[in-house]
Amino acid sequence: MSIEPHLPRDHAFGPEDVEILSSALEETLCSLRLIDRIDPAVSMVAERLIQLATDGERDSARLREEALKSLWR
Predict the structure, then answer these.
(1) How far, in Å, are 20, 34, 48 from residue 45 at the CA level?
(2) pLDDT tens digits, 12-68
(3) What values do phi and psi take at 4, rounded to 5?
(4) How high is the pLDDT of residue 32?
(5) Which range marks the domain in which residue 42 is found?
(6) 21 class by beta-carbon count within 10 Å (0-12 exposed, 13-18 middle, 19+ buried)
(7) CB contact at 8 A, 21 and 54
(8) Number of C-alpha atoms within 13 angstroms, CB side, residue 48?
(9) Counting Cβ atoms within 10 Å, is residue 46 exposed (0-12), middle (13-18) or buried (19+)?
(10) What are the E-state strand segments in 1-73?
(11) Domain count of the chain?
(12) Measured distance CA(4)–CA(19) in Å, rounded
């Protein structure tokens, strides 16, 4: 699943960043067993991943792990 629909219009992510974020989103959704892509939880996960990337994280596995951790806080 692409993260692009969740990105703000004025985002500063390059194509490689978008690819990493999209991969992290798909991996996180699979971990959560979220199949319904219109579930509001998908947007919550995407927003968290975007925030983590905005803060500087670019590793897909760390993005996934941090997003999952933040959901259980």
Answers:
(1) 14, 10, 5
(2) 899 999 999 999 999 999 999 999 988 999 999 999 999 999 999 999 999 999 999
(3) -50, -40
(4) 94
(5) 4-71
(6) buried
(7) no
(8) 23
(9) buried
(10) none
(11) 1
(12) 9
